[in-house]
């Protein structure tokens, strides 16, 4: 019985550590955006905050024509700063600011 309890306890601790390090993701969909080159479309902005010892933020922006007809590219940025969108208005500004950085 003791041989069974120790491995189960170790697995429980490991699952708890993995669950606490899970990332929290916010998604903002910005409709009817006029991009800097005059293209009309929408931007999907995802902000993913990873937990753990050092909090890191990954922002991904996917650019589409209206109705998601054509994918125009995407932009990603990893950061540990506080320069990331926290609401829909900021997400649209962020998407427009990085439109020419897309690939």
Based on CA inertia axes, which overall geometry fits? elongated
> Distance between the terminal alpha carbons, to the nearest Å?
57 Å
Radius of gyration: 19 Å
Number of helices: 2
Helix content: 25-40%
- The beta-strand count equals 4
Run of helices and strands: HEEEEH
- What's the domain count? 1
The strand line-up of the biggest sheet is: 1-2-3-4
Tell me, rounded to a whole number, the average pLDDT.
Answer: 82
Largest sheet: 4 strands, antiparallel
Share of β-strand residues: 35-45%
Structural class: alpha+beta
Unreliable stretches covering 5 or more consecutive residues: 15-20
What does this protein structure show overall?
With 103 residues, the chain is α+β, with helices and mostly antiparallel strands. The model is unreliable at 15-20 (pLDDT under 50). A four-stranded antiparallel β-sheet has the order 1-2-3-4, with helices on one face. Helices cover 28% and strands 40% of the residues. The chain is built from two helices and four strands; from the N terminus they run αββββα. The protein has one domain (22-101). β2 and β3 (56-65) form a beta hairpin. It has helices spanning 2-20, 88-97, and strands spanning 24-34, 40-50, 56-65, 71-79.
